[in-house]
Amino acid sequence: MITRGARATARGVPGAAIVTRAGGDARRRVLQSFAAVLEAALAASLAWAFAHDVLGHTEPFFAPIAAAISLSTSYIQRSRRIAQMIAGVLLGIGVAELAHPLLGSSTLALGITVLTTMVVALALGAGFFGDGMMFPNQAAVSAVLVVTVHRHGTGAERAIDVLVGGVAALLVGVLVFPSNPVRILADAEGDLLCVLAERLGAVGSALGADETVDDAWTLGAGHDIHRRLSALNRARATARLGVRTAPRRWHLRRTIDAEVTRTAQLDLLANAVISLIRAATLRRDGRAAPAPELRDRIASLAADLGRLAIAPRPWAPELLGQLRCHAEDAVEEVGERRVDSDQVVAAILRATARDLIAVTEPRPLAE
Length: 367
Prior knowledge:
mainly alpha, 14 helices, 0% strand, elongated, Methane Monooxygenase Hydroxylase, Chain G, domain 1, 2 domains, single chain, 77% helix
């Protein structure tokens, strides 16, 4: 995947192996999200049962829709999604109920109603509601449903159904089965460390074999790393919100505050790895490959990141001690090198090793 030869080999993978790999990936995705999906289904069922059997609404489809979409397949930012879902659907119902007596249910009326709803959603979608597309999207969807399945006098009933769905989602996903903020942070951090280890390890292997790394691969590596960084940022926001909204997680506030502070160092580490990949693989204008000792340190750093990614939590003190020793040795050793052509690589390698030390240092719990 780094050179033309490697890409040709990848294209030659047997079809059975591709199918097996795809099946394994699908199974892993289902298993990872099955608990969240089960909770979404439970919340949807509770919302329908309450709206239909207790309140007596004949077609309370907004209730299970609001509950299921709010919880969805992920634990990330559930509280935010619930609030955005309720507000968006209520906005869509309100605009559609006001517009229908004036415009009717024609194709033109539908287009004008959706346009008006989304414009209003954009105007109101600042701050909390402006994060992501849940708020305007759900406003538009609910407006479409009201216009196309309109019955006189159902606006208030549908608004109640939305609130029922939101309460069901809040009850199931936040109060009874709140996400584990420590696990969410650990999973996101592990995913990022895995990608850092894989990409840096591939560079180390390529340098050891004197292979050329092309720009497309380097761009892809940067994209993957930034995607995992974005996921980690969402996980930090979810963890902070979770320990403040879920009573069962209140006791983890100090722990999460400390973890959020520590994992912020991963932003620096990830960007240092991207810079190291670029500096170590740039072979233009006759520039030679990095010196053997630098290549060895890059490979060693990738191996340490890989060990950290797969190690069970909490990380063993022995493991952290070993990794910090390796990183400190790298800082000292490459700092002593005075090979002109390797100065950029050496400087970035030192910075990366220092960032790894910062990530593995325990942080005192916030008071």
